[in-house]
């Protein structure tokens, strides 16, 4: 699959899961609050600044920055998929934000002028892009001298069982193909060294990387399956094709695998993000 095919696949996936992400936004926001808070704190938006969010999804990270830049500042919230941008627009209206502009935009081909922003945010976006190096170079181009970028990607699979336990079971059952190690994926930038190299290659000279822990919480296995089906297109496609008996067998296997993470009120599965700030 070449880069254009990968871009098209990402577009179609993002369009498909937008409604599910909107339904699951409260759970996702609660789980990833430590990452969002780290990014906004390290970006340190100031009143009057212009901030760009790439691959915004529901937009919560950018919206926190919009509050800090105030009415004299501006957030431009962008996503590759129109349906996902619509989700962000609705969420921004719920929060009563009036200093946000919403645009559909490919982060690898940013249709904005040079030196236009004081800061850029991208939470869990670069790792899914066909050409993250190009996207980071474009990011550097639209930042003013001294401008800052805050990003987050997922750490290695072994440290993110909330993502890997279910996907590995689907692969083992032949329900989804094994992941392509060269394709964009949640773990494409898990190596902090690679992330640093990509940032420096794009022209960022001052790079600092930290790890941020998260917890994904599910009431039970069916809750987990519902969330996964809403937010991950390959999972949704696989689960739709299961018979009742096959789904029950998968649920039993998941319950056994989740047992080490059981506690009061369900399961708490750990995860680790690699977060970076650069200028």
What does this structure look like?
By secondary structure, this protein is an alpha/beta fold. The protein has a domain at 3-156 and 183-214 and 271-278: Vaccinia Virus protein VP39 (Rossmann fold, 3-Layer(aba) Sandwich). 47% of the residues lie in helices and 22% in strands. The chain has helices at 3-43, 60-69, 82-94, 132-142, 161-172, 192-201, 221-231, 233-240, 244-258; strands at residues 50-53, 74-79, 100-104, 117-123, 143-154, 207-218, 262-263, 266-278. Strands 1, 2, 3, 4, 5, 6, 7 and 8 form an eight-stranded mixed sheet that branches. Helix 2 links the parallel strand 1 (50-53) and strand 2. Helix 1 (3-43) packs across helix 2 and helix 1 runs parallel beside helix 3. The longest helix is centred in the N-terminal third of the chain and has 41 residues, at 3-43.
């Amino acid at each position: 699959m070449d880069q254009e095919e990968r871009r098209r696949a990402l577009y179609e996936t993002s369009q498909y899961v937008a409604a599910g992400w909107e339904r699951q936004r409260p759970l996702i926001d609660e789980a990833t609050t430590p990452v969002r808070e780290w990014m906004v704190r390290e970006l340190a938006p100031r009143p009057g600044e212009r901030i760009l969010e790439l691959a915004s999804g529901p937009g919560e990270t950018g919206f926190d920055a919009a509050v800090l830049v105030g009415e004299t500042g501006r957030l431009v919230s962008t996503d590759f998929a129109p349906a996902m941008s619509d989700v962000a627009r609705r969420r921004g209206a719920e929060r009563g934000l009036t200093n946000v502009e919403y645009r559909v935009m490919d982060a690898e081909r940013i249709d904005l002028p040079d030196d236009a922003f004081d800061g850029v945010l991208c939470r869990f976006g670069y790792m899914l892009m066909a050409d993250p190096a190009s996207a980071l170079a474009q990011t550097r181009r639209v930042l003013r001298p001294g401008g800052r970028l805050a990003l987050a990607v997922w750490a290695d699979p072994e440290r993110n069982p909330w993502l890997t336990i279910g996907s590995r079971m689907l692969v083992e059952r032949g329900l989804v193909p094994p992941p392509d190690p060269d394709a964009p994926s949640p773990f494409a930038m898990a190596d902090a060294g690679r992330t640093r190299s990509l940032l420096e290659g794009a022209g960022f000279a001052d790079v600092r990387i930290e790890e941020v822990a998260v917890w994904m919480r599910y009431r039970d296995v069916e809750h987990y399956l519902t969330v996964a089906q809403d937010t991950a297109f390959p999972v949704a496609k696989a689960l739709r094709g299961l018979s009742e008996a096959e789904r029950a067998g998968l649920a039993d296997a998941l319950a056994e695998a989740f047992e080490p993470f059981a506690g009061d009120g369900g399961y708490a599965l750990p995860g680790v993000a690699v977060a970076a700030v650069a200028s």
